[in-house]
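**User:** Here is a favour to ask of a fellow structure person. Please take any protein you like and set down a full record of it. No explanation is needed for now; the record alone will do.

**Assistant:**
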Amino acid sequence: MGVVGAGILGLAVARRLAELRPDAELTVLDKEDRLAAHQTGHNSGVAHAGLYYAPGSLKATLCRRGIALLKDYCADRGLPYEECGKVVVARNAAELAPLAEIERRATANGVPGLRRLDATGLREIEPHAAGIAALHSPETAIVDFTAVARAYAADVTAAGGTLRLGTEVVRIGRRGDAVTVRTGGGEELVFDRLVICAGLQSDRVARLAGDSPAPAIVPFRGEYYRLVPDREHLVRGLIYPVPDPRYPFLGVHFTRRAGGGVDVGPNAVLALAREGYRRRDVRPADLWETLRWPGFKHLARRHWRTGVREMYGSAVKRAFLAEARAFVPDLRAADMVPAPAGVRAQAVDADGSLVDDFRIGRLGPVTTVRNAPSPAATSSLAIAEHLAGEILAG
């Protein structure tokens, strides 16, 4: 069996397959020379409790199962896992109804310990936060997902699996019931089953296996600032806005990190390369592929005003600061320094719809994970259970 992708999801799937089929020869392939090189390694580190997701969706079901498995796994492996809690803050009366909808969803999803707070209750949890109401999730946690991914990889190799880093997949074919994989080095590998968990490259690798063009990945860079050490006291845990239901992005928020520090962000601007973590990272072939995708044209036509606002916040620090100060008024420009950015693999359908739920496909012996956004890292062990059961049954 083969898995394409050595991020947290690919490694979790490989780990589960090795558990269920200890006699199988298992190989994980990744074009990078290190584990968790992209989305996992640039993750905000939040273990989500399941507040936002539509009840009954894969996101909701797998997030609740996943966070329980992740908590136990981190305890067993001695990995950082801190239940610092999260407040979702309504700044004005217009946000009270959306906040109530989040509370309804979270309750339906079985999120434990939820509390509705007024302005006084919010300040008891986060003394420097401003808002007229909030929803408190005390079991939302922070973790080091790169460390978790390394632990998954160690489990795979301990079970006899092989990690092939620096091995790019350039062609996928069929030979009878088997799947053939051609690598960039000209080697041909043969598997009875193949799972594609390729993150930012998931649509491209899925198309190599014969999958449809849709959905296509449109990369969005999320830019962060980090609080200087003597101002980290402004944030005790996680401070989030009430999200705009039109978008899968949560907006600028405050995130305490498992390794120390507090991040502010992210925004969401179009990345000019699939793996474009810096503004100067431009890959014309990637950009052209994005621009000619019909779904992107529809997306841009509908939401260009939001895109312009996000780009302005990216270019002008005081605009970014103003958005952040709406939640923590004591924040000053000098309190924030630039921090590493991430790139989100946002799946977009041909009609311009932003794909929200997990999107998983089957092409005979090939399983394609076409969309696995947040909370995929939180849900990784549960997604692996879900996928591995279907793969081995099929």
Remarks:
- The CA atoms of residues 12 and 384 lie 6 Å apart.
- The mean pLDDT is 96.
